[in-house]
Design goal:
Mean pLDDT: 89
Low-confidence stretches: none
CATH superfamily: Response regulator
Number of strands: 3
CATH topology: Rossmann fold
Strand content: 5-15%
Number of helices: 5
Number of domains: 1
Order of helices and strands: HHEHEHEH
Structural class: alpha/beta
Length: about 120
């Protein structure tokens, strides 16, 4: 995910990191104004599926775009990511153009004022 972070920072985006899902939720709650989450599916302690479901259970983040990112491209992974609440799914190695297109699309699917501050 750090390679992805570097790429996003070159586009002027601010990137926050968390080593696992539990810390990710702490980072989310401590930082208002988060526009999108890139969720690594394979994390220690609390995987991306459980973390995504936990974020979705919080009313204020029910529509926050979440893109699942995983090296697992096996059949069923996309469906499992979407079922846990992900807005979309990309596989590693991440293609920069595909990721940016996906980010733009899921950010555009929110209505006005439906970000983290809603």
């Amino acid at each position: 995910m750090f390679a992805i972070s570097g790429m996003l920072e070159t586009y002027g985006m601010t990137v926050l990191h968390a080593p696992n899902g539990r810390k990710g939720i702490e980072v989310l709650l401590a930082n208002s104004g988060i526009d999108l989450i890139l969720m690594d599916v394979m994390m220690p302690e609390m995987d991306g599926y459980a973390t995504t479901a936990a974020v979705r259970a919080m009313q204020q983040y029910a529509r926050l775009p979440i893109i699942a990112v995983t090296a697992k491209a096996m059949q069923g992974d996309r469906e499992k990511s979407l079922a846990s609440g992900a807005s979309d799914y990309v596989t590693k190695p991440v293609d920069a153009d595909e990721l940016l297109d996906t980010m733009q699309r899921v950010l555009g699917e929110r209505g006005p004022g439906e970000g983290a501050d809603s």
